[in-house]
C-alpha cells in the first residue's frame, strides 16, 4: 500500500470552526482513499479511544487489535469487555463501518499508516528495578512485531504510559530492522479517567503530542494533530518534544494522586481534632490557585495507573541521581497505604478489637463508581486486612462479579497488570468471602458495613430496613463519605466517616496505623 502520510499531501485539510474544507486537489485524491489507523491493545484505553476516533473521523478506517481472543470476541459482541458510560452507543455506531476489532494483529499493523500502541506497562516484579520500574515487555514485543511486518512507512504512537526516554528505545528497535522503512515515533499519552472516558475523550482538557524536532518529526506531529482536530479545538492540542510529552503524563498522574494523599493526610488530622475534612477541602479549594476538584477524602486512591506511574517516576528519579525527589513522590504512595491501613484498624478497633467470625458487608469493590474495573482498588487491601483478622465478608458491587473478586483477593501484587490470558486462570478461592447481587443480602445479619466505592445507589438504600436486619450494635464505616451520617445515627447506627468528627463510641477507640 502506498504510504499516504509522508508524501507531502496527506492531512492537509484544516478545520475552521466546525467547517471542514479541503486545501488542494491532491487532498481530494487522498481523502477519497481511506487513512488506516491500527491500535495494538484493546483495553480500557485502546478500545474507547479508537471508538471515539472512528466516531469523529468517518474518513479514517480504525482497527483495534489484541492478542487476547476473549477480549476481541467481547468487543465484537453485545457485551463489551469493559463497562464505561456511553461506550456501547459509540461502538455500535461505528463497528462494522470504520471500526473493527481483530486478533489479526500483524495484518492490520502492516496495512496501517498510523499505529497506536496501548498495551500494558506493568510494574516490574523481578530483576532490575523490581517493584518500581515499568516492565516494557509487551511494548517491546509490539515494537519488534511492527518492525517485522511493516512494508511501508509508519507513524508509531506511544499511547501507553511509559518511562521518559522510552521513545528512544522504541526507535532503536524499529530502525534496527527497518529494511529502509521510515518510522516516526510520537508520544501521545492518554489522560482519560475511567467512568468518564467517553466524555473525557469527546471533550478533553488537552491532547498532548510529542515528537522529534526534525522535519519528519514535525510532519508526523501534524498528521496526528489533524486526526484530533476533527473534534478537538486546535488550541487544546499541545505539541511538545518527545521527552516533555512522556514526562508530562507521569507528572500529571503524580500531581493528581498527590492531591488525594494531601487531603487524606488532612482527614487523619481532622479526626484527631474535630475538624471536618469536607469543610476544610471546600475552604481550601475555594482558592482559585488550588481549585475544588479532586479533593475528596477517601479510603485511598486505586486504579491501574496512579501507583504504577508514581513508582515508575520514583525509579526514574533514583536512576537520575535524585533520591530526595524520589522520596518526595514515594510519600504520596505511603500516605495512600497508611489511609487504607488506618481504615481497617478503625473497623477492627471499633468492633471491640476483633472482627473474627463477624459478618462484614462490603458495599462496592470497584476502584471508583461507574466502572467495573478493580485494578489496585483499595477494596483489595481493606478486604485482605479484614480477612487477616478472620472476618467473614459479604461483598456486593453492581459491576463486579464473583470471579473477578476472588481473582483479585488471591492474586499476587502486580499480577493483575498483565494481559488477561496470562493471568492465573483459576486461583484458589478465598474462604470466608461470599459475593452477592444486592446490598440487602450483603448486609443481612451483618455486624458492620464498609462502603468502599461511591456508587450512587448506596446513598439511597433503605437504611432503616438494613438496620433492622443487622446485628447490634450496627456499624457503618463509610470509606467514601457517601451516606448521610446524621440520618443513619438517628436510625441507631454507629457511623464512621473519613475525616469527620467522630462518634463518642469511636473516640474511645482510636485507630492508629
Ligand atoms: P489494559 O490491560 O486494559 O489493555 C492492554 C491490552 O493490551 C490488553 O488487552 C492486552 O491483551 C493487550 N496486549 C498486551 N501486549 C500485546 C501485544 N504485544 N499485542 C497485542 N495486544 C497486546 O490496559 P489499559 O488500562 O488500556 O492501559 C494501557 C496503557 O494505557 C497503560 O500503559 C496505562 O498506564 C495507560 N493508561 C491507562 C488509563 C486507564 O484509565 N486505564 C488511562 C491513561 C493511560
Ligand atoms: C486517573 C487520572 O484521573 C486520569 O487523568 C489518567 O489518565 C488515568 O488515571 C491513568 O493514567 O490511568 P482513573 O485512575 O481512571 O484516572 O480515575 P480517577 O478519577 O483519577 O480516580 C483514581 C482514584 O482516586 C479512584 O480510586 C478515586 O476514587 C480516587 N479519588 C479521586 C479520590 O479518592 N478522591 C478524589 O477526590 C478523586
UniProtKB/TrEMBL annotation:
One of its GO terms (molecular function) is UDP-glucose 6-dehydrogenase activity. SMART domains: UDPG_MGDP_dh_C. GO terms for biological process: glycosaminoglycan biosynthetic process; UDP-glucuronate biosynthetic process. Pathway: Nucleotide-sugar biosynthesis; UDP-alpha-D-glucuronate biosynthesis; UDP-alpha-D-glucuronate from UDP-alpha-D-glucose: step 1/1. Its EC number is 1.1.1.22. It is an enzyme of class 1 (oxidoreductase). The keyword Oxidoreductase applies. NAD(+) binds at residues 41-46, 66, 71, 119-123, 160-161, 194, 305-308, 375. Keywords: NAD, Oxidoreductase. It catalyses: UDP-alpha-D-glucose + 2 NAD(+) + H2O = UDP-alpha-D-glucuronate + 2 NADH + 3 H(+). Gene3D superfamilies: Cytochrome c1, transmembrane anchor, C-terminal, NAD(P)-binding Rossmann-like Domain. It comes from the Eukaryota. Residues 361-485 form the UDP-glucose/GDP-mannose dehydrogenase C-terminal domain. Pfam families: UDPG_MGDP_dh (PF00984), UDPG_MGDP_dh_C (PF03720), UDPG_MGDP_dh_N (PF03721). The active site is at 305 (nucleophile). GO terms for cellular component: nucleus. Belongs to the UDP-glucose/GDP-mannose dehydrogenase family. This is UDP-glucose 6-dehydrogenase. It comes from Gossypium raimondii (Peruvian cotton).
Amino acid at each position: 500500500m502506498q504510504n499516504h502520510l509522508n508524501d507531502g499531501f496527506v492531512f492537509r485539510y484544516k478545520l475552521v470552526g466546525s467547517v471542514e474544507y479541503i486545501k488542494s486537489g491532491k487532498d481530494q485524491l487522498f481523502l477519497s482513499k481511506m487513512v488506516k489507523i491500527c491500535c495494538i491493545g484493546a483495553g480500557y484505553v485502546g478500545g474507547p479511544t479508537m471508538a471515539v476516533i472512528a466516531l469523529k473521523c468517518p474518513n479514517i478506517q480504525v482497527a483495534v487489535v489484541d492478542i487476547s481472543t476473549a477480549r476481541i470476541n467481547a468487543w465484537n459482541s453485545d457485551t463489551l469487555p469493559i463497562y464505561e458510560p456511553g461506550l456501547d452507543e459509540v461502538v455500535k455506531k461505528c463497528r462494522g463501518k470504520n471500526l473493527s476489532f481483530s486478533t489479526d494483529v500483524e495484518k492490520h499493523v502492516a496495512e496501517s499508516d498510523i499505529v497506536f500502541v496501548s498495551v500494558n506497562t506493568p510494574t516490574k516484579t523481578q530483576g532490575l528495578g523490581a517493584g518500581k520500574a515499568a516492565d516494557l515487555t509487551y511494548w517491546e514485543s509490539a515494537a519488534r512485531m511492527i518492525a517485522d511486518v511493516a512494508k511501508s512507512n509508519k507513524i508509531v504512537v506511544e499511547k501507553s504510559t511509559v518511562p521518559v526516554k522510552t521513545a528512544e528505545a522504541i526507535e532503536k528497535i524499529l530502525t534496527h530492522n527497518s529494511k529502509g522503512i521510515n518510522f516516526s515515533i510520537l508520544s501521545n499519552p492518554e489522560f482519560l479517567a475511567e467512568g468518564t472516558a467517553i466524555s473525557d475523550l469527546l471533550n478533553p482538557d488537552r491532547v498532548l503530542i510529542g515528537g522529534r524536532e526534525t522535519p519528519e518529526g514535525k510532519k508526523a506531529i501534524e498528521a496526528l494533530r489533524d486526526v484530533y482536530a476533527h473534534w478537538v479545538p486546535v488550541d487544546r492540542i499541545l505539541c511538545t518534544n518527545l521527552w516533555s510529552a512522556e514526562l508530562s503524563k507521569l507528572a500529571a498522574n503524580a500531581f493528581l494522586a498527590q492531591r488525594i494523599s494531601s487531603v487524606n493526610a488532612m482527614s487523619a488530622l481532622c479526626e484527631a481534632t474535630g475538624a471536618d475534612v469536607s469543610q476544610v477541602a471546600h475552604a481550601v479549594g475555594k482558592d482559585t490557585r488550588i481549585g475544588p476538584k479532586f479533593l475528596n477524602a477517601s479510603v485511598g486512591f486505586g486504579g491501574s495507573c496512579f501507583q504504577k506511574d508514581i513508582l515508575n517516576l520514583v525509579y526514574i528519579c533514583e536512576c537520575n541521581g535524585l533520591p530526595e525527589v524520589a522520596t518526595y513522590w514515594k510519600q504520596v504512595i505511603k500516605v495512600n497505604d497508611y489511609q487504607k491501613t488506618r481504615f481497617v484498624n478503625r473497623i477492627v478497633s471499633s468492633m471491640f478489637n476483633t472482627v473474627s467470625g463477624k459478618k462484614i458487608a462490603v458495599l462496592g469493590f470497584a476502584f471508583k463508581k461507574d466502572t467495573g474495573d478493580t485494578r489496585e482498588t483499595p477494596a483489595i487491601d481493606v478486604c485482605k486486612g479484614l480477612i487477616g483478622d478472620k472476618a467473614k465478608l459479604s461483598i456486593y458491587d453492581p459491576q463486579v462479579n464473583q470471579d473477578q473478586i476472588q481473582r483479585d483477593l488471591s492474586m499476587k501484587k502486580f499480577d493483575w497488570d498483565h494481559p488477561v490470558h496470562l493471568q492465573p486462570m483459576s486461583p484458589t478461592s478465598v474462604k470466608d468471602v461470599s459475593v452477592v447481587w444486592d446490598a440487602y443480602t450483603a448486609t443481612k445479619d451483618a455486624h458492620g458495613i464498609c462502603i468502599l466505592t461511591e456508587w450512587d445507589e448506596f446513598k439511597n438504600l433503605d437504611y432503616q430496613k438494613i438496620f433492622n436486619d443487622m446485628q447490634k450494635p450496627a456499624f457503618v464505616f463509610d470509606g467514601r463519605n457517601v451516606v448521610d451520617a446524621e440520618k443513619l445515627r438517628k436510625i441507631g447506627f454507629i457511623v464512621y466517616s473519613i475525616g469527620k468528627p467522630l462518634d463518642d463510641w469511636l473516640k474511645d477507640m482510636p485507630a492508629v496505623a
